[in-house]
Amino acid sequence: MKKNQFYITTPIYYVNANPHIGHAYTQIAVDVLSRYHKMLGEEVFFLTGTDEHGEKIEEATLKSGLGQGREKEFVDKIVPNFKKVWDILGIEYDYFIRTTDSVHKETVQEFLNKMKENGDIYQGEYDGWFCVPCETFWTDGQAKDGICPECSRKLQRIKEKNYFFKMSKYQDWLIDYIKANQTFIMPKNRRNEVLGFLKEELTDLCISRPKNRMSWGVELPFDKDYVVYVWFDALINYASGLRACHAFDKYWPADFHIIAKDILRHHAVYWPIMLKSLSMELPKTIFAHGWWKMGDEKISKSKGNIIDPVFLAEKYGVDALRYFLLKAVSFGQDGVYTEDAFIHLYNSDLANDLGNLLNRTLTMLEKYLESPVSPDRKCLVQEAVAQSSKIRTALCALFPRVKERMENPNLFLKEALEEIMSVVGIANKYIEETAPWKYNKANNKKAVDLIISDLLEVLRSVAIALFPFMPHASQKIWDQLGLRGEVRGEEISIEKNADNWRRFPAGTKIAKKDPLFPRVQ
Ligand code: MSP
Known about the structure:
Blueprint: E1 5-14, H1 21-39, E2 43-51, H2 55-63, H3 71-88, E3 95-98, H4 102-117, E4 121-131, E5 136-138, E6 156-165, H5 171-180, E7 185-186, H6 188-197, E8 205-206, E9 208-210, E10 219-220, E11 223-228, H7 230-235, H8 237-244, H9 248-251, E12 256-260, H10 264-277, E13 285-289, E14 292-294, E15 297-298, H11 309-316, H12 318-327, E16 335-336, H13 339-368, H14 382-406, H15 413-434, H16 436-441, H17 445-466, H18 471-480
Parallel strand pairs: 1-2, 1-12, 2-3, 7-13, 12-13, 14-16
Antiparallel strand pairs: 4-5, 4-6, 6-8, 9-11, 10-11, 14-15
Helix pairs in contact: 4-8, 11-12, 12-13, 13-15, 13-17, 14-15, 14-17, 15-17, 17-18
Bound molecules: 5'-O-[(L-methionyl)-sulphamoyl]adenosine.
């Protein structure tokens, strides 16, 4: 039984093109959760990777000019681009699994053999539809007029001898399981969607492609004329990725599989049934987030409306991009992307609120106090003391509130950011209301000291709470405050930070720099 471990995954992405903002979104959300759980002192394993088999990749290889049979060369060229983009976006994954890795292929074959031994795989004839861009099989009932119900593209009609996985056998079990485990599929509307889908009789899943039609895949261990259907191969990455690191026993099962809503059925129906057939433990939560759209359309390569995350990171900063993607919409819902919305949020939250708070605080500290923070924080001005106690209350509530949102099965990431920014707002108001420049004019240094010390406390805690979201900016705040070491080493632990107050070391030397988030015109 695992105790202090946290295992979280992203989907593995098709390598038919370079990553776009939609892929970056999932990566960033998982990175935030992973960094957050590390700060709680948990042992975290964050798995990501690439899905390299199937017809889509075979087609892309041909289109690239490389001939048939040269798929591996093609994917080897694309994979480094994914890794590069993840590095630029500050994605600290623990392992990158590729489905062409031998450990993965061996795991797929081992699992398929087991399912066959259990009597869950049989041969039959597949007569139905197939969508190459979605790599998904559809029945006559699902595919009206030969159009893909997911992406609205034309489907292929397929009639071929194939292998099948007995999904129907497990339908009742799965329905009961989902009903008994309220947070197995999140958010709730996605859970209802799956239960709705399960009202229809489940057909057995076609899990192979004959090599003479499509040969780019993992060979079926019990029939050399076939390769494994790409989704059946891909889902197993969640196990092979851990195996590659000899970490399976320590981390299995996953705490979260984070995906987007378009691949919910594969994760919330196929995958649990595969695990059940293998007598393996199920993931605790499958969380399907929404889509980033342009207008009404999902952002995707095939629609030709992609936004390059590297372009945005270079123009506005990586942390601004991370902040925007998670603050602009509640995790789980769709978002409509426009650069104007990006700039608006950047200016209001980052340049005005957070950037200004840091800047004003450090400027006043430099101007009004001889030594940075005096250890004597006693202040005789009643008015200032009363205001101070208000900010203290808000600040002491910050970590518990952030915790409540981050650890909620709804993954309230936007709402956690709102809590943090609300304290920033309170601190800015505190400056307006107390007007430390007046106390300074009246030469009441104790009152000035009290107010500035409070602001430093706020900035210290805000930097800690923001670290998972904006690791670079939060470290910069930390450094400018003159605090030692790395923010990542701090713990968002209620036990250790019960009273999140008066933790700013006195006498700290500040290191004011240029504004963190210069206003964008
Ligand atoms: N290879 C499969 C997944 C196999 S997982 C065992 C696949 N790959 S994909 O390249 O199409 O990536 C899909 C994932 O990319 C989505 O689940 C989501 O995480 C992310 N997104 C792609 N486009 C997106 C948006 N426009 N908006 C939000 N997320 C998007 O499916």
